[in-house]
Amino acid sequence: MKFRLDTFTLLLLGAIVLASFLPVTGQAADMLATTGTIAVALLFFFHGAALSRQQIIDGATHWRLHILITTLTFVFFPLAVLPINGLSNLMPEWMPRDLGLGFLYLGVLPSAVSSSIAYTAMARGNVPAAICSAAASNVFGMMLTPFLLLLLVSTSGTGEFAVAEALKDIVLQLLLPFAVGHAFRPMLGGFLSRNESLMARYDQCVIWIIVYSAFSHSVVSGLWQNLPLQAVVLTILLCVGLLGLFMLVAMVMVRKLGFSLEDEAAVVFCGSKKSLASGLPMAKVLFSGHPGFGMIVLPIMCYNQIQVIVGAILAQKYRAKIDRASAAHASE
Questions:
Q1: Of the candidates 289, 269, 226, which has an alpha carbon nearest to the alpha carbon of residue 37?
Q2: Which of 65, 98, 176, 228 has its CA 20 to 30 A from that of 326?
Q3: Contact 249, 112 (CB under 8 A)
Q4: Of the candidates 146, 150, 135, 122, the residue with the CA atom closest to the CA atom of residue 70
């Protein structure tokens, strides 16, 4: 099976290359950072306006499935990345401190919404449950992510984390626009549902701005001098390992609990994925001005591309398996 990088992935790689050779600096960098801040607030305003309450209600009665997905996302995953961050003390040439912090941040992120639902649908899995879990994960993730990050940083001794400032920025730049946007849903919901592709492009534009601005700042601060090649290779290998581990854990737990094959597909995709769309905007708020921002977001950028490729393969395998099970059931 052949895969090619999609346009957005190429644009993200282009942003990194552009920032490496032509980083934005000085007053232009300040203007781009301000533009990014406004764009992130507007992004969460649109997400609030687009979120239907029915999407949260649908499938909410399947509470055992949602508890399992939430546990994988916000309990098991954060625990799994703690030892990885510990490598920054044992092998700093392989795991610089900011890269270790990036893995902690990857661990506390919510599940990816669009890809989780898309792959569950492709696999003929439990789509209503996937919608409910992925949407709830992102809504609660805006509140849980900074608290969990603070807890992991305190546990691992990674360093200082300005929690009060971070929480204030989360409320003002993310939660408040989200709540205001949801209040405007009666006026904007129809427009947003009719223009989902336009909103998806806006999400991608915001992420591109964040990546270019962040990597420009990191390059000026010496990113490539401080990030050895072996650290990049190790990051990719660890992301592959984490994704494989959580897909396997999800499969085992679902079968132990006696869920259906359709439910298994929803849990595997929602419980193993991490959101780049939420992760980068939140990182911009939580780590604003941090010289090691490029290293911090490197794990989520690598993990996102790996989960897209592996998810496409696995969704087709689940689809074939579920179709065979449905055909066998119909013939009985």
A1: 289
A2: 65
A3: no
A4: 135
Cβ neighbour number for residue 158 with a 10 Å cutoff: 19
Separation of alpha carbons 75 and 55, rounded Å: 24
Of 213, 212, 226, 209, residue with least CA distance to 100: 226
CB 81 within 8 A of CB 104: yes
List, in order, residues 6 or more apart from 306 with CB less than 8 Å away: 236, 239, 240, 243
Can you read off the two tokens belonging to residue 119? 């792959």
Tokens 């941090």, residue located: 290
User: Token digits for 261?
Assistant: 């094959």
Our measurement of the distance from residue 33's CA atom to the centroid of its chain's CA atoms, rounded to an integer in Å, reads: 21
DSSP-derived secondary structure for 172-188 = IIIIHHHHHHHHTHHHH
Contact 160, 286 (CB under 8 A): no
**Angstrom distance (rounded) from CA 174 to CA 180:** 10
| The amino acid at 18 | L
CB 305 within 8 A of CB 9: yes
In terms of phi and psi (left: phi > 0; alpha: psi -120 to 50; beta: otherwise), the region of 198 is alpha
pLDDT 10s per residue in the chain (332 long)?
444 556 777 887 888 889 888 888 888 888 887 887 788 788 778 877 876 666 545 555 667 788 888 899 999 999 999 999 888 888 888 898 889 999 999 999 988 766 677 778 778 888 777 767 776 777 777 778 888 888 887 766 555 455 556 556 667 776 788 788 888 888 888 888 788 778 778 877 877 887 788 778 767 766 677 678 898 899 999 999 999 999 999 999 999 988 888 889 889 998 998 987 778 778 877 887 777 777 888 898 888 878 877 887 888 888 888 888 877 776 66
The helix or strand, by DSSP H or E, that contains position 7, with its residue range, turns out to be helix 7-21
